[in-house]
Amino acid sequence: xxxxxxxxxxxxxxxxxxxxxxxxxxxxxxxxxxxxxxxxxxxxxxxxxxxxxxxxxxxxxxxxxxxxxxxxxxxxxxxxxxxxxxx
Length: 87
What we know:
By secondary structure, the chain is of the alpha+beta class. The protein has one domain. It is built from 4 helices and 3 strands. The chain has helices spanning 24-27, 36-46, 51-61, 66-82, and strands spanning 7-12, 15-20, 32-34. The chain has a 3-stranded antiparallel sheet. Helix 2 runs antiparallel to helix 3 (51-61) and helix 3 (51-61) packs across helix 4.
């Protein structure tokens, strides 16, 4: 999965948010606030990581089993799909 161009992860007032830039601002107004694990997953997607890589990235930071990590990844991906952020 590839995130559409025109969206960037920024730190605003101490929070991690995804904001549209450039032409993306015409189709998407607002922002998506991410928690720390969401920011990890966002960066994994930008790097072209597969689900297994994303699981490993979460497990480097959090004490979670594969099933819990996969459920978090699925929920995150579904949220991005609902916001139409994938190409």
